[in-house]
Amino acid sequence: MPNIMLVLQANEETRPIVEAVAEDNPHARVDHQPAMVKIDAEDRLAIRRESIEEKLGRPFDLQELHINLITLSGHIDETDDEFVLSWNN
């Protein structure tokens, strides 16, 4: 089964997002590179609004994720509270 992947620009805006995603997905691998951060996992990767808000200390609309998004792989299931990447069996 292919890995799920999320790649974000490496900057101050994405630092708390990456931290929240890593904490919510302990099975994920985070690869910090000079200009980007690649997060990949098997089966499923969940990005939770509430976790990001805790790190940022302010409200966060998951649509803001797209501002610093470079690429992703997997099927997307998106609500106001969660952005999930997965591979359907």
Description:
The chain is of the alpha+beta class and 89 residues long. The chain has one domain (3-86): Alpha-Beta Complex (Phenol Hydroxylase P2 Protein). 20% of the residues lie in helices and 42% in strands. It contains two helices and seven strands. The chain has helices at residues 15-24, 49-56; strands at residues 3-9, 29-32, 36-42, 44-48, 69-73, 75-78, 82-86. The strands form two sheets. A four-stranded antiparallel beta sheet has the order 2-3-1-5, with helices on one face. A three-stranded antiparallel beta sheet has the order 4-7-6. It is globular and about 35 Å long. The relative contact order is 0.27. The model has no long low-confidence stretch (mean pLDDT 94). This is Monooxygenase. Keywords: Monooxygenase, Oxidoreductase. It comes from Azoarcus taiwanensis. One of its GO terms (molecular function) is monooxygenase activity. Belongs to the TmoD/XamoD family.
Give the CA-CA distance, first to last residue. Answer: 9 Å
Largest sheet: 4 strands, antiparallel
Overall geometry comes to globular
The amount of beta strand, in percent, is 35-45%
Mean pLDDT equals 94
CATH architecture field = Alpha-Beta Complex
Protein name: Monooxygenase
Keywords: Monooxygenase, Oxidoreductase
Pfam families: MmoB_DmpM
Family: Belongs to the TmoD/XamoD family.
Helices and strands in order, then pairings?
Elements: E1 3-9, H1 15-24, E2 29-32, E3 36-42, E4 44-48, H2 49-56, E5 69-73, E6 75-78, E7 82-86
Antiparallel strand pairs: 1-3, 1-5, 2-3, 4-7, 6-7
Helix pairs in contact: 1-2
